[in-house]
Amino acid sequence: MWNNNGSSLLKKATMMMRHFSSSSRKRAPILRKINPRVPYQEAASMAEGLYGIIKTHGPLSIGNAWNYAKDSGINGLSSKTHMKLLLKWMQGRHMLKQICDHVGSNKKFLLTTLPSEPRENQQSSIPAPIRNSKRPSQNRKQKR
User: Fold this and answer.
1) CA-CA distances (angstroms) from residue 132 to 98, 139, 142, 143?
2) Per-residue model confidence (pLDDT) at position 14
3) Count of alpha carbons within 13 Å of 60, Cβ hemisphere only?
4) Which of the 8 DSSP states describes residue 131?
5) Short-list 78, 72, 38, CA closest to 64
6) Which end of the chain is more exposed for a tag (fewer CB within 10 A), N or C?
7) Nearest to 77 by CA among 61, 90, 60, 59
8) Class of residue 75 by CB neighbours under 10 A (exposed 0-12, middle 13-18, buried 19+)
9) Residue 87's CB: how many other CB atoms inside 10 A?
10) The predicted structure's pLDDT at residue 23
11) In Å, how far are 36, 38, 68, 73, 91 from 78, measured between CA atoms?
12) Is the Cβ–Cβ distance between 107 and 100 less than 8 Å?
């Protein structure tokens, strides 16, 4: 009843679909809760200070962000490890994103703020190309 060639083609097709569909998926979000080790109000005020630092000084590495945070004197921020924990908490709340910058064979991870305007608005401001109402074949006939 079953054709061996048909079933093997089906297996290959499903294997190809799994391969290509899994490689194009986004990374799974972190599902575990990140505990900022302080009450929510304190965490929110510290996050606001860190967000301001990263927004004003552009993409920063974690070390540079720690230097700016020490200089600004954010209340409640006790150590660099605590700052890293708060940064992960902020990433989970979609306040920040981390980008990777390849410099030769080395990688630098930089923290940036998310854009305030969605990209769809920026793309809609681009004017649409003007199309000719006549077909190209009609233009050739008229030139002759």
Assistant:
1) 45, 10, 15, 16
2) 72
3) 21
4) P
5) 72
6) N
7) 90
8) exposed
9) 22
10) 55
11) 12, 11, 14, 10, 20
12) yes
Q: 5-43, pLDDT tens digit by residue?
A: 556 767 777 766 666 665 556 666 665 688 888 999 999
Element (H, E) at 43: helix 40-57
Angle at 96 between CA 91 and CA 98, to 5 degrees: 85
Say which DSSP state 24 is in: T
**Which amino acid is present at 58?**
G
Cα(62)–Cα(81) distance, integer angstroms: 10
For 67, the enclosing helix (H) or strand (E) is: helix 62-72
73 backbone dihedrals φ, ψ, rounded to 5°: 70, 55
Tokens at 56, concatenated: 């004003």
Task: Decide if 113 contacts 54 (C-beta within 8 A).
Answer: yes
Distance (Å, whole) CA 88 – CA 105: 26
Mean pLDDT by 10 residues, the chain (144 residues): 61 67 62 83 95 94 95 92 94 91 90 75 51 58 58
